[in-house]
Amino acid sequence: MISELIKIGIIASGSGSNAEAIMEACEEGGVKGKGKVVVLISNKKDAYCLKRAENHNIPAILIQSKDFKGTREDYDKLVVEALKKYDVQLVCLAGYMRLVSPYFLETFKDSVLNIHPALLPSFPGMHGYKDAIDYGVKISGCTVHFVDEKMDHGPIIVQKTLEVKFEDTEETLKERGLILEHEAFPEAVQLFCEDRLEIIGRKVKIKRKDK
To answer: Which residue in the list 116, 127, 145, 153 is annotated as catalytic?
Structure first.
């Protein structure tokens, strides 16, 4: 049974603009009163996401992956330990540049969300916007999905689309795409916090909101 206020942990590797969108949604948006970001973890020392968390008075933890000597699961055990310290119930991967292990996913079963800069299943991987430009598609967008053991593969929760203009570059498409990402991720988080998501095979059913 999901508690009234969901404790959210964010893991990020870079700037953290999607992380901040979730923080702001918890403070003054649709997630307010339903979920709260209680910790942000980064695997990179100089990642700006750590500063964003500090600006929101959220604990920011560095668990550096560079030169880490153990296995992926060994690393994830450190991350899980930190998340459990804050009683995290929902994990959001916001630009996290590592695959999580089966151990991690079993610990937070059906409670790990990721955002991807493409309309999955098209263009998985690190460069969704660039791949869309290179392929010549007319429509691009972003996807928020549950995480499973395969990269950019789990059941889809929210997708938002935008037109790809002929003159677009990776940078211009990403600039417009980020606007959609900052809408999509908090929307998916809100649905989770309201206990409105049900995974049925590869599909996610969005249940009606209780009146």
So the answer is: 116
